[in-house]
Specification:
Number of strands: 8
Number of helices: 6
Structural class: alpha+beta
Helix content: 40-55%
Order of helices and strands: EEEHHHHEEEHEEH
Number of domains: 1
Distance between the termini: 24 Å
Strand content: 25-35%
Radius of gyration: 17 Å
Protein backbone atom coordinates (compact mmCIF):
# COMPACT_ATOMS: atom_id res chain seq x y z
CA UNK A 1 0.00 0.00 0.00
CA UNK A 2 1.24 3.47 -0.90
CA UNK A 3 2.11 5.75 2.02
CA UNK A 4 2.75 9.48 1.82
CA UNK A 5 4.85 11.38 4.36
CA UNK A 6 3.70 14.99 3.92
CA UNK A 7 6.45 16.41 6.13
CA UNK A 8 9.20 14.92 3.91
CA UNK A 9 7.04 14.95 0.75
CA UNK A 10 8.00 11.31 0.31
CA UNK A 11 6.15 8.27 -1.01
CA UNK A 12 6.81 4.77 0.29
CA UNK A 13 5.58 1.49 -1.13
CA UNK A 14 6.18 -1.49 1.15
CA UNK A 15 8.88 0.56 2.89
CA UNK A 16 10.69 1.45 -0.36
CA UNK A 17 11.01 5.12 -1.39
CA UNK A 18 9.22 5.86 -4.66
CA UNK A 19 10.08 9.00 -6.67
CA UNK A 20 7.36 11.61 -6.91
CA UNK A 21 6.26 13.43 -10.05
CA UNK A 22 7.78 16.58 -8.51
CA UNK A 23 11.16 14.88 -7.97
CA UNK A 24 11.22 13.51 -11.51
CA UNK A 25 10.52 16.93 -13.02
CA UNK A 26 12.80 18.81 -10.59
CA UNK A 27 15.73 18.93 -13.03
CA UNK A 28 13.62 20.97 -15.46
CA UNK A 29 13.00 23.78 -12.95
CA UNK A 30 15.55 26.55 -12.68
CA UNK A 31 15.05 28.59 -9.52
CA UNK A 32 18.69 29.64 -9.11
CA UNK A 33 17.82 33.32 -9.57
CA UNK A 34 15.00 33.29 -7.01
CA UNK A 35 15.88 33.89 -3.37
CA UNK A 36 15.29 31.06 -0.91
CA UNK A 37 12.98 33.35 1.10
CA UNK A 38 10.78 34.01 -1.95
CA UNK A 39 10.69 30.32 -2.83
CA UNK A 40 9.76 29.37 0.73
CA UNK A 41 7.04 32.06 0.89
CA UNK A 42 5.56 30.91 -2.42
CA UNK A 43 5.70 27.26 -1.35
CA UNK A 44 3.99 28.00 1.97
CA UNK A 45 1.31 30.13 0.31
CA UNK A 46 0.55 27.40 -2.22
CA UNK A 47 0.48 24.71 0.50
CA UNK A 48 -1.86 26.78 2.68
CA UNK A 49 -4.26 27.40 -0.19
CA UNK A 50 -4.21 23.70 -1.16
CA UNK A 51 -4.92 22.68 2.43
CA UNK A 52 -7.71 25.25 2.82
CA UNK A 53 -9.42 24.07 -0.38
CA UNK A 54 -8.99 20.43 0.62
CA UNK A 55 -10.64 21.12 3.99
CA UNK A 56 -13.33 23.20 2.30
CA UNK A 57 -14.14 20.43 -0.20
CA UNK A 58 -14.28 17.90 2.65
CA UNK A 59 -16.47 20.26 4.74
CA UNK A 60 -13.80 20.40 7.46
CA UNK A 61 -12.89 24.08 7.30
CA UNK A 62 -13.48 26.11 10.46
CA UNK A 63 -15.36 29.41 10.35
CA UNK A 64 -12.14 31.32 11.11
CA UNK A 65 -10.30 29.57 8.29
CA UNK A 66 -13.18 30.25 5.90
CA UNK A 67 -12.75 33.96 6.68
CA UNK A 68 -8.96 33.76 6.21
CA UNK A 69 -9.37 32.17 2.78
CA UNK A 70 -12.68 33.76 1.80
CA UNK A 71 -11.42 35.14 -1.53
CA UNK A 72 -9.82 31.83 -2.64
CA UNK A 73 -12.90 29.86 -1.59
CA UNK A 74 -15.19 32.20 -3.54
CA UNK A 75 -13.02 31.81 -6.65
CA UNK A 76 -13.08 28.01 -6.21
CA UNK A 77 -16.86 28.04 -5.75
CA UNK A 78 -17.20 30.14 -8.93
CA UNK A 79 -15.08 27.62 -10.83
CA UNK A 80 -17.11 24.62 -9.58
CA UNK A 81 -20.40 26.39 -10.28
CA UNK A 82 -19.36 27.60 -13.75
CA UNK A 83 -18.54 24.06 -14.90
CA UNK A 84 -21.34 22.45 -12.87
CA UNK A 85 -18.59 20.17 -11.59
CA UNK A 86 -18.88 17.31 -9.14
CA UNK A 87 -15.77 16.60 -7.11
CA UNK A 88 -14.95 12.89 -7.37
CA UNK A 89 -11.49 12.76 -5.75
CA UNK A 90 -9.63 15.12 -3.43
CA UNK A 91 -5.84 14.90 -2.97
CA UNK A 92 -5.68 11.41 -4.48
CA UNK A 93 -2.29 9.71 -3.99
CA UNK A 94 -1.52 7.02 -6.56
CA UNK A 95 1.35 4.73 -7.54
CA UNK A 96 2.26 3.59 -11.04
CA UNK A 97 4.05 0.33 -11.80
CA UNK A 98 6.18 2.50 -14.12
CA UNK A 99 7.94 3.41 -10.85
CA UNK A 100 6.59 6.73 -9.64
CA UNK A 101 3.88 8.21 -7.44
CA UNK A 102 2.03 11.48 -7.07
CA UNK A 103 -0.94 13.23 -5.54
CA UNK A 104 -3.62 14.59 -7.82
CA UNK A 105 -5.29 17.72 -6.45
CA UNK A 106 -8.77 16.98 -7.81
CA UNK A 107 -10.63 14.83 -10.24
CA UNK A 108 -13.90 16.46 -11.12
CA UNK A 109 -16.75 15.29 -13.26
CA UNK A 110 -18.12 17.67 -15.89
CA UNK A 111 -20.84 16.45 -18.24
CA UNK A 112 -20.15 12.84 -17.16
CA UNK A 113 -16.44 13.07 -18.02
CA UNK A 114 -13.49 13.02 -15.62
CA UNK A 115 -11.23 16.05 -15.65
CA UNK A 116 -7.93 16.09 -13.82
CA UNK A 117 -7.39 19.42 -12.02
CA UNK A 118 -4.10 20.72 -10.73
CA UNK A 119 -4.56 23.77 -8.51
CA UNK A 120 -1.95 26.50 -9.02
CA UNK A 121 -1.15 29.80 -7.34
CA UNK A 122 1.83 30.72 -9.53
CA UNK A 123 2.18 31.47 -13.21
CA UNK A 124 1.97 28.99 -16.10
CA UNK A 125 5.20 27.33 -17.18
CA UNK A 126 6.36 24.61 -19.58
CA UNK A 127 6.58 21.99 -16.82
CA UNK A 128 2.89 22.03 -15.87
CA UNK A 129 1.64 20.04 -18.89
CA UNK A 130 4.22 17.37 -18.06
CA UNK A 131 3.01 17.29 -14.47
CA UNK A 132 -0.64 16.85 -15.45
CA UNK A 133 0.40 14.17 -17.96
CA UNK A 134 2.22 12.29 -15.21
CA UNK A 135 -0.96 12.47 -13.13
CA UNK A 136 -3.01 11.24 -16.08
CA UNK A 137 -0.64 8.27 -16.43
CA UNK A 138 -1.09 7.54 -12.72
CA UNK A 139 -4.85 7.55 -13.27
CA UNK A 140 -4.63 5.31 -16.35
CA UNK A 141 -2.45 2.85 -14.45
CA UNK A 142 -5.11 2.76 -11.72
CA UNK A 143 -8.08 2.35 -14.10
CA UNK A 144 -9.33 5.93 -13.77
CA UNK A 145 -10.28 7.37 -17.16
CA UNK A 146 -9.33 11.02 -17.66
CA UNK A 147 -10.91 13.06 -20.44
CA UNK A 148 -9.06 16.37 -19.97
CA UNK A 149 -6.12 17.81 -18.01
CA UNK A 150 -6.47 21.28 -16.52
CA UNK A 151 -4.42 23.61 -14.37
CA UNK A 152 -6.62 26.06 -12.51
CA UNK A 153 -4.74 29.23 -11.60
CA UNK A 154 -5.88 31.54 -8.82
CA UNK A 155 -5.21 35.16 -9.70
CA UNK A 156 -6.39 37.88 -7.32
CA UNK A 157 -10.17 37.70 -7.81
CA UNK A 158 -10.54 35.14 -10.60
CA UNK A 159 -9.49 31.74 -11.86
CA UNK A 160 -7.90 30.91 -15.19
CA UNK A 161 -8.14 27.43 -16.69
CA UNK A 162 -5.26 26.18 -18.78
CA UNK A 163 -6.06 23.00 -20.67
CA UNK A 164 -3.19 20.71 -21.63
CA UNK A 165 -4.03 19.03 -24.91
CA UNK A 166 -0.78 17.65 -26.31
CA UNK A 167 -1.00 14.19 -24.78
CA UNK A 168 1.46 12.47 -27.12
CA UNK A 169 4.27 15.00 -26.73
CA UNK A 170 3.71 15.50 -22.99
CA UNK A 171 3.79 11.74 -22.39
CA UNK A 172 6.97 11.36 -24.43
CA UNK A 173 8.74 14.14 -22.52
CA UNK A 174 7.59 12.96 -19.09
CA UNK A 175 8.62 9.38 -19.88
CA UNK A 176 12.02 10.68 -20.97
CA UNK A 177 12.35 12.57 -17.67
CA UNK A 178 11.44 9.40 -15.75
CA UNK A 179 14.02 7.38 -17.71
CA UNK A 180 16.74 9.98 -17.08
CA UNK A 181 15.79 10.17 -13.39
CA UNK A 182 16.11 6.37 -13.10
CA UNK A 183 19.36 6.32 -15.11
CA UNK A 184 20.99 8.88 -12.80
CA UNK A 185 20.05 6.83 -9.73
CA UNK A 186 21.43 3.48 -10.90
Amino acid sequence: MLEFNAEKHEYLLEGKKIPSVTEILQALHNFQFVSKDKLETAKNNGSNIHKALEYYDKNLLSEKSINDYQNIIKIWEDFIKHYDAKIKHIELSLYSPRGFAGTIDRIIEVKNKNILVDIKTGKPNKIMPLQTMAYKLLCQDNNIKIYKRWCVFFQEDKYIVSEHKNDFQDEQIFTSCLNIYNFLRR
